[in-house]
Design brief:
Length: 127
Amino acid sequence: MLRNVRRALLPGGRFVLDVTTRAGRMQWKGEKRWYVAESGFWKPGRHLVLEEDFDYPEQAIYLNQFTVIEADGKVSVYRNWFQDYDPASITAELEAGGFTVEGIWGDLTGTPYEEGSAWIGVVARKE
């Protein structure tokens, strides 16, 4: 992905992104939830949503999975994968991709980063 972002930017262009942190992930860790919706985000008609989280701490990866069952029995599975970072690891990743990190915050609104922040907001410049 970084290669594509780098190719799209002019020299000196900025890449603004946010990433999750392990500390933030622990706030949502390992829950199982379900609900019935008449309509909504996943489907236009009545459906059941089963949500389950899977944590892979050795790789700092987290999966948030939604199984959606429609009234006619049709099943769809949606998976949101998250790679968690800390300031050092996201900086190393971006530098390896040809970027210079110009700033790190606790989110994209400019909140100062603190140990335990759920998110990291980053501004990086293309070399």
